[in-house]
Amino acid sequence: MNEYDSNRLADLLKKTGYERTKDLEDVDCYILNTCHIREKATEKVYHDIGRLKKKYKNKKKPTVFITGCVAQAENNEMLDREPYIDAVIGPQSYQNIPKIIQKIKKRKNKLNLTSFDVIEKFDRLNDIKNSSSKTSSFITIQEGCDKFCNFCVVPYTRGPEYSRSMKEIIKEANELVSNGVSEITLLGQNVNAYSFTDNSKVFKLSDLIFELENIKDLLRIRYTTSHPNDMTSDLIQCHKKSKKLVPFIHLPVQSGSNKVLKIMNRKHTREEYLAKINNLISVRPEIRFSSDFIVGYPGETEKDFNDTISLVKQIKFLNSFSFIYNKRPGTPTSKQNSINEYIQKKRLIVLQNLLSDIQIKENSDQVGKLKKVLVENKMKNQTSYFGRLENFTPVIIEKVTNSDIGKIINVRINNFNKNNLFGVKEHVESVVAA
Ligand code: SF4
Known about the structure:
Layout (H helix, E strand, L loop, with lengths): L1 H13 L14 E6 L6 H15 L7 E6 H6 L1 H6 L5 E3 L7 H11 L3 E3 L4 H8 L10 E5 L1 E2 L10 H4 L4 E2 L2 H13 L4 E5 L7 E4 L2 E4 H8 L7 E5 L8 H9 L6 E3 L7 H6 L6 H14 L4 E3 L1 E4 L6 H14 L5 E4 L16 H25 L4 E9 L6 E4 L5 E5 L9 E9 L4 E6 L8
Parallel strand pairs: 1-2, 2-3, 3-4, 5-8, 8-11, 12-13, 14-15, 18-20
Antiparallel strand pairs: 6-7, 9-10, 16-17, 16-19, 17-18, 19-20
This protein binds iron/sulfur cluster.
């Protein structure tokens, strides 16, 4: 979501005469868009600002904005601690950035814009054209979360769940596709809770997906990140009926232990999670899953950890993320004692080795097969091309031309490593979406 927000910020500032640059030696305005999910995010901001100060020691100081969830969480503290920062701007106030720049230029005062006004944010950003022309692009459709998992900062930094107008999302999708985008990933902190009411009719994520399918040159649709409890029957059926929705879902479970799920306040059990997975498999047998895992949560015993391991073995998750639990200030679990760090690290290694073994086995099973790959771009070596399978696995492809970018082509897989597949384009008449 931060990548999407950064791009929209660039689009917004373009309107006011600013241009995006990779040259950090000579900027008028420096925006550090931050993520608060991982530990030490705040300290990283101060280190980055320290480096910036050194760069501009003998030059005109740029205007410095901290945006994103760290800005939201720290707000005034950040302005007090680091006078080099001109404004902290929470995710719900991005639409105000052009005005803030003008105010700072005129009055030289510090600004804290971290109130929650997500409706205004979406309304204003709707007017800014999303200029992405990559093959695969994001669209934010929902922000915030009402779930309040005990380890997570999102409900505090992104606020309550709010869904964007379906009409605006479709408009943005049409613009992206006319710009050459072939795959859209619908984004939200709790994306499958999407619910927008128009003329007393409630539109859910499944309705939105069916509408987006009508965009002719849109080939693939993804959505992330989902909560198991919002995996409703209409959405499950959508995975059966949709021709463009990929058979792959990032559906975080965090732990396989009912005890840990309870203390995390995840509001679902292992059995309920498995039931959703089985329902999805029953409507779309080839569907695969990825997940996030938190290892070494306060109170996690060896038995709890083994429950996670057995769940991973059962579902055979692909392309997943696993982390050692770390405290996020302001969350309920941050007050609890952490378990032994050595044990946490040991468990993470066991889990990551297992996830890696599953991925390697999956990748090796693809050798010799003909797979549908969406070609995204030419690689730096200028001979190979980069694409992805429906399940997000990267594929390095040979014998492709620039005219294949943005298309789904057939690729004969001939090699693999832990992270990638390798293959050669094979000509087959008419390849259809997803
Ligand atoms: S559902 Fe996801 S975003 Fe919401 S509180 Fe839980 S972990 Fe955070």
